[in-house]
Amino acid sequence: MISLKNVEKVYRTEEIETLALSGINLEIEEGEFVSVMGPSGSGKSTLFNVIGLLDEPSKGSVLLAGESIQGLPDREQARIRNRQVGFIFQTFHLISDLDVIDNVEIPLLYRHLSSSERRSRALRALERVGLASRVRHFPSQLSGGQQQRVAIARAIVGQPRILLADEPTGNLDSQMGEEIMKILMGLNEDEKATIVMVTHDARLAEKTERIVRLFDGRQVN
Amino acid sequence: MLRNYIKMSLKVLRRRPFFTFISLFAIGFTLTVLTTSAALIDHTLAPMPPETMLDRTLGIYYASAKGETIRVNSHPGYKLLDRCLYDLPGAEMVTVFSSASPVNSFLDGRKIESHLKRTDGTYWQVMHFDFLEGHPYAEDDDRNANFVAVINARTRREFFGNAAAVGKTIEADGQHFRVTGVVADVPSYRDNPFADIWVPLGTAKNHNYRSEYLGGFTGLILAKNQSAFPDIRREFQTRISQIDLADLEVPGIAVLSVRPETYAEAASRRILGTPIETTRSGYLIALFAGLMVLFMLLPTISLININVSRILERASEIGVRKAFGASKFTLVAQFVTENVILTLLGGTLAFIASWGILAIFTHVGVVPYAQFSPNLRIFAAALALALFFGVFSGVYPAWKMSRMHPVDALRGTTL
User: Fold this and answer.
1) Which residues face B151 on adjacent strands?
2) Do the chains contact at A78 and B322, CB–CB below 8 Å?
3) Which of A78, A102, A115 sits opposite B325 (nearest CB)?
4) Predicted ipTM of the assembly
5) Is B35 found in the same domain as B90?
């Protein structure tokens, strides 16, 4: 499902060159739940961005669902992100001006779907995360856990094959973190979603099928 | 998608009321000035009663006679029009009339100042006046020099108060005329139909005008359609070239330039002062368009600045939309649409404000007899201006926003 070969990512400024990822070789199978661990600055988020087509590797190749993503034009990259990947961020990144259902509909706006189709899919996704009763609430009216559940609904509404979660419980207390983890595990077990989760929390990482550890931009398994 | 954009746009407007006020004020003020100007230009140049057929009318408004030591620029004279205007190929009707000249009337010791125009009978077929009572005079009235007149509503009021005027007699410029009809007032900036009193040409105090090539008259040619314009112009020039310049009342003339012009061409020549031979209405359109763009430039830059400064505020949204599948093009479309919605809102305010300003102009009588009122053309102009302004000021910020790297956008860092 996800294949990284010899991936390297270098950030360059006029004065300094920072090696964020180096020699990453990673194969993630369809339906696998993988967590990525490592201290701050180890390259977890960079790896997350590279897999999610939010950033391009400086070297190496990345294949998503068999498609090479190197050098694709912006429009094609946008299409792949829209169809293949769902993102869950630590800080939720809900649009505060839009209510819950409009937030969840966002990925569907970039497909040719009728508004009724978008609405019914968004409602189903919200039911899946137990928030069908909050569709007209705004993000500021929800707790952190509820906001993250909205973010999960947004990530799964387009039925992507890959879910990328960047510290999804990082901003939540342990009880809410557990709830979010249960939802993610449910998605992995029931719907065979491929999930890559970046986390600091070893306890959560141990619940996943595999842990990829990074240190100074390198795999250290 | 559009519903989402509209919703988003309204939310963004509500988010920062002060920015929104500044933006709407700038847009509204700019578009009010432009829409009011467009309305004034429209009222001055567009076909409207009584000049409903301007689109197929050519006018002989101006003659330029040049010699080595002399130069005469004036209206054409009656003789020139009489020799060159009739029986042109492709012409449906022609009319000849004098400029409106100021005349005085005296009624019960009171002086009434008016503008009097002398016309042939066809004038009333080329112009479509709104008759409040009675009817126009005919070609025979001109031929027989009958002392009849059509007056406007203001003249009726001056002479007869609120009573009917048809059949009654008025005195103007020392002559007495029987009123055959009363028409609605026509504003003074519409040269061709404007007057307070219209009388037949034949009633002129003397007939010297019949031998003059230069001065005092205008001729209009109503063509069957616009495609007849080139033939009419060609034949007219041929006839002009056959005039023996020694016959002109001014000696020493070597070149006589007269050209059938559209109303817009004549306006262009008057405003820009271009030579009659080379005047084109496109110059005037280009001038107006240029002035409009220039006037829009400052508020556009200000709106661009406001929009660019709001990029950071919307960084997270941009990042999310990119992450979930928005391409650069889609984002540009979204932000331009949002900006167009903002300017349409400003355009609506501007249209209402212009309506009010035009009503005040009419009420105060800034231009005598002018009835400035919005119409579909002005509404279309306001809409077009708002759209142009929206796209003009929206594209750059939208392009800049769309180029934001998704990772930077999600992190909330600037460009």
Assistant:
1) B182, B197
2) yes
3) A78
4) 0.92
5) no
